[in-house]
Amino acid sequence: MPLSELSRLTNAIRSDSPLSYSAIPAHRPPLSVETSNSQRKGVALITSASLSFALMTLAARMLSPQYTSAQILQYSGLTQTLIALLSCLLYRIHPFHVSGSWEETQRWLVISVCAQSLAYLLYYTAVARSSMGMASALFATNCVAAMLLDTWIRGTGISQNKRKISAVCLVGIVLALLPNSLLLLVGGIHKGRGLALTAALFMALAHQASSRATGTRHPLVHIVHFGLASSVLGLLSSLHKGDLGRLPATAADAGALVGVGAMAFLSQMLMTRGLQLTNSVAGAVAGASNVIFCFVMDAVLNCTFPSVLGAAGALAIMYSATSLNT
Fold first, then answer.
1. What is the mean pLDDT of the chain?
2. How many whole angstroms from its chain centre is CA 301?
């Protein structure tokens, strides 16, 4: 990546929401004709972020037979922390600086990154036990879950349009959780997909916790915290399972483990920058392309295809996630 582009990605961004491919973009006024190039660039950056997240998912899926989700989270967290710290050093950004009330912002930031780390741990486990496409589709429900959680905490009413969106999302979840069999009464719920849905709920909690922080921070500050939280959570989980201290067996494994963290870092930075350049509708649609990328990779590389019910559920979820911003 050119140094000038990385500089724009690191210095021109301030965000109060957790950095993830599914972060809900804020509403912005319609762009004029003169800024159409910026909008197209924003869509391209968000689409690239979605592709990076899909590649991260693919790497985690390839590593799952040899490594636990805790080990993948641990190594990816270390990678993100190192990249973020080096970027902070290069651009003279304090890795723990926040504006406003430091104690309150830091407290909610810690809660946010802990919830986000747990969400990724569950997501990596879901990818190992389910298809990439279905896991990513269910993980994308965190947009709707974050909206409902925010409405419940604030005690405000929910509009008729958002009620319909929530209903469509719920139908999509039910269809996606069903097994790839018509014997629905015998099959039961797919466990891997259930973990992906649980991961989405923790991601929604991360959104809410971050939004309650009164101060602001540079995205690199968030990634430093997230990387550290992921490393600690992965370490504790590995210690609990007796897998502590396992090193990559081959150079290819080491590259894939580093790649998971590098793609996660790149996805967060590209998504944040892209949301600054485009409107919310275009950003949401481009962000939903992550699910499409995962389904395509599943079909091409793993020869895995969703059932009719699963595909219908994924489409319903994608529709509800993008409709939040219309």
1. 80
2. 22
Model pTM score: 0.82
Summarize the confidence of residues 164-172 as an average pLDDT. 91
Handedness of CA 232, 237, 242, 243 (dihedral sign): negative
Instruction: Tell me if residue 179 falls in helix, strand or coil.
Output: coil
Helix count (H) and strand count (E) of the chain? 14, 0
Helix (H, G, I), strand (E, B) or coil at 262: helix
Residue 239: which residues within 8 A CB-CB, separation 6 or more?
Answer: none
- By CB neighbour count within 10 A (0-12 exposed, 13-18 middle, 19+ buried), where does 194 fall? middle
The model's pLDDT over 57-95, given as tens digits with 9 standing for 90+, comes to 999 999 999 999 999 999 999 999 999 999 999 988 888
Tell me which residue of 247, 260, 256, 206 sits closest to 229, measured CA to CA: 206
- Inter-residue contact 58 to 299 (CB < 8 Å): no
Q: List the one residue out of 238, 282, 239, 266 whose CA is nearest residue 124.
A: 238
Token representation of residue 67: 């490594």
Q: Return d(Cα 217, Cα 118) in angstroms, integer.
A: 22
